[in-house]
Every structure is written in structure tokens, then in C-alpha cells.
Amino acid sequence: MKHLGELLIEKGPFSEILIGNHALVRAMIESGVQVVTSYPGSPTPEIAEAILSIPPDKNPLYFEFSTNEKVALEVAFGAAINGRTACVFFKSVGMNVVADSFVQLSMMEIPGGMVIVIGDDPGANSSQNEQDNRHYARLAYTPIFEPKDAQEVYDMFKVAVEYSRELRAPVILRLTTHTAHYKQKVNFGTYTPRQLPPTLFDPKSFGPYIPIADNVPIMKRRALEKLQKWAEISERFVYVTGSKHKRGIITAGLPFSSLLDVLGEKVGEVDILRLGMVYPLPRKAIVEFLRTHEEVKVLEELDDFVEQAVKAIAFEESLDVKIFGKTDIDDWIGEYTPEKVATVLSKTWPDLAQLPKRIESVRIVKRPPQLCPGCGHRPVFYVLSKILKDSDISVADIGCHTLGFLPPYNVGQVLLSMGHSVSTGAGLSLMNDSRRVIAFLGDSTFFHAGIPGIINAIFNNHKLTLVIMENGTTAMTGHQDHPGKRIKIRNLLEAIGVKYIWEVDTYQQDKLEEYLRAALEAPEFSVVIAKHPCMLKFTRERRRKGIVKVPQMRITDRCTLARVCISKFACPSFQVGVDGRIFVHKDLCIGDASCTVVCPSGALELENVSASGGDGR
pTM of the predicted model, to two decimals? Predict the structure, then answer.
């Protein structure tokens, strides 16, 4: 297989095994997309990875990581109303961030076309909730395509671009964690480089773009008229299998793929209506399907979005059909994997779904999430676990540092969303003279959503301490760049009026403790910038440079088995052997030596090893 970047710009048609996110980028290129924007978040980071793998001198896409999802959407919108075909992608909860601008899009004429790719996350694999973003489509009169696999990710994106240009309207391509990472052989078309079209921004021809009172009714009518056209288009994306059985299933996306696995040889005993568009629904196709069946099951992940619409259609059409949807709370939760679909389907038709055999409970070693070896966040939580009082309140935020909530640190007691920590902490500090408040914020989140809360804290004289965990990257989603590469956090803090600022490398634990204690006792809002490069990124870069053997920690005879390195500092490189002695796991230790100061007996030393060559351990 060719390098991914070269493969994505192949001129001729070809087939290759790719995941949905990578197939999507080829669809962008074939469709003539010109501008792509994003804020990183799972399950979508591989889209950016694929774009950035294309040689810069051959890449037909302008791509940027924006400071947050709302900014990314607005940049894409600006390009699209100027005639450039644009795409923005982000994770599920990013939809909340873009909402203020997103709900306006359908009322605007977008001559370049604009596709919004959402990575929803049933199962909350990497998100703080399981929100179902199909509801936003109804709120904003915006259509949704929902592919079932990698091939359809590619196919539907191209179709979405085509119709978006034709109707000059936004359209959503809804991926979920499974479809984003679905791996299969995908058949691709041809790629012909296109000339950049002239700029098209012309409010006289395509406006109005200003939603004042006189214009809003006109703009809303335009959005609703386009929605009617989208409803007609949705009738072209229905897929019916079966031969007029009494029972039928309406489904879409991943649940359809799982359903086929569950039915197996019984697939011929029930008819299936698969929806390619889940909003607006293909009313004619649904009416016909309901009319020709006695019982219909609506099978969908998360909320009863399609179910409620199907039941409404049946009522309005006076159809004599029994419709089954979600039966209990469990049906609303989690990914619709084959096991889940079997469980859900068995509640309605036990004869069609054989429940998987339960494995007898087995004892397995618990493996909770943990900070990487050498992580610069670890010293912060270790120090704070020593100096915080039981009465102190700590507010977590989104990022690797969220893991401070777990034992043994137990730092971070509440979490809402990106950037909330300062404002939630400010609220906790009100009418509170007895309990100190400390909040945490990652450097990427600082630029994403943290600055307004800090300004608010300064403006309203809120007394709390903020620790900015600066590791120089957007680590949790794959080490994407953020504005901190060019814009110094301290300079911004000083510019907005923060008086009490301390800055320290977290490996300097004595200074770190001194500064944290001072900040907690400051008379007003205070900030500690706790800096250290992400060591996962650092070690990868070190290997790329050929430095594969580095000094590692060793435990000397001075060890008294105090186990501070394990029970309080909690570096995963330290483990307990069958003999009860502590040893250093050579495959995990990176030789960062941040642990040396925590050992009460001074038993931790750095080995004297050549800094290059070796076997990679």
C-alpha cells in the first residue's frame, strides 16, 4: 500500500482498505472541497491526520485547526458564502459550541456548499455524554445523512456536497465512533484537480445575510422551502430488503450493520427499511413500509428520534400497524453493537434474536486510566494531594488532567465541559470564606473556551486559583497544535489584568509546591502556569531522531518499601514483583527522573546509559 497521503491524491479510480475517516478525505478531494476546518476531538482526529499526510505541494485542501468548533464553523461558512466548497468537522459535544452560529446557517444562501461532519459518540467512549445531535438538525432545519460503513462515508459525503451546492444549503454528515473507524475495502473514483472559482460573495444576489426583524421571516421561509426539497431528496436514499413479511424493521447507520450480524440466517424472515437520511425522513417510503406490515420495530441508537417521527406519521396516516420502539432505559444507552442489538431485538421478537451466551464471570486485573510515564501533570497532582485540605474544592476540566480525579490524587470534584472550570469555580467561591477553590485548565482549552471565564473572574473580583496545565499540545486527541505555539499564555493573562501569576516547570517540585501554596493564599484571582512538554509526544519525537536507548530509573538498596512511588506518585513504571519488591518496568520507564524527589529514602537513581543506539527499551 502506498503512503496514505500519496494514495489520497491518486488520479485514477482505485480500491483500498481504509477507515471511514480516511475515506472521507478522499471524498473531499474528489468533490472539489477547498476549505476544511476543525477543532480536534474523537472520533474525528484521523480526518485531520489524513489531510496532513498529503504532501503540502500537492494538497488541494486548505486546512486549519481553529481555536474552537464555533470558530471552525464560522471560518468554513465565510469561505462557503464566498463560493469555496467548505467542510468543518468536530466531535459530538462540539455541536454545543457551534450551536449559536449553526442554527443560523439554513437561513443563509451558501453558494459554495458546506458540509458539517459530526462525530457522535454513542457509548461515550471519549466524551462526557452520549448526546444525540440529530435533535440539532430539527432545531436548525438542516438535513442529515447517516452512513453505515466506510464505503458509505465516502459515497454520502460526495452526495452531500453535490446537493449542498445545488441548494446552496448546509448539510450534516453524521458519523459515529464505529462508522468513523469502520475499516473495509472502499471503491474510489477519479480525482481531477480543479481551478479555484472566482469569489462569489454577493449579498445583493444571495442575501439577505443580516437576520434583522424584517429579514428573518423571509430567511426562515427560505430555509423551510429548502427543507421540503431535502425531504424529497431523502426518498432517494431508502434501501428496502425482504419480501413482504408481516414484520419489518426501520433502522439506519451502525444499528443496521449490527442487525445483519444478529439476524444471520434469519435475515429473510423480516423486512428491513434502512434510511440513508435520518432528517428529514422519507415520508412516502415510511408510509408504504408501515402500510404493508403488521408490526414494525424502529431500531436506533441513543434517543427515540426516528421512532417518534415514525409513530407520528402512522397516526397522521391512520395506519393500522403496531410500532415497537425503545422498551426501557437500557435501550437509550450505549452503542448498538451486535450484542446490544440482540438484546434490544429480543425484547420484541425473541425468535429473531438469539442472545449471546454469557461468559461466566472471571476475575481480571483492573486497569483504570492513568497518566503516562513522565507526564508533567503528575507532579502537580502529587503536590496538591499533599497540600490541599479536605475542605478545599477542586474543579476539573476537559483533557488529560481530568485523570487527576482518580486515585491516588483525587483532585477534581466536578466537570461540565471545556473551559467551564474557571466559571464554575467562581460560582463556588461566592459567599464562601472558609473553603479554598482551585480550578484546572489545559493550554488548548485555555484558548478554546477558557479566556472568557478568566476575564469574568477578573471583572467580577472572584477569588480562586487557576492552574493552567501547559504541555504544549492538544494531547488527548492526538497532539494537534494550538495557538500556544505562537501566543504566550502569560502575556494574555497579564493583558487582561491577572496580577498574581506564577510560572514553573512541573519537574521542579519544590518551586511548584511553593508557588501553589502562594497562589492558594493570594488575596484575589491567581494563576499558576504549570509547564512541561507532553512526554508522550517528546518520546515519539526522540525515537524519530534515532534516540532509542535512554537512561532509566533504578531502585537502589536504600529502598524501604515505603511505596510512595506507587501509592502516591503513581507512576505506572513502578510495579510490585511476586517477591513483594518494587521494580522498574523497562518498557514503560522513559528516564524522566521526575520521581526521584518523592522517594523518602532516596532510593531512586538514574542509570548511566548512552543516549543513543540500543534496542529501543
Answer: 0.89
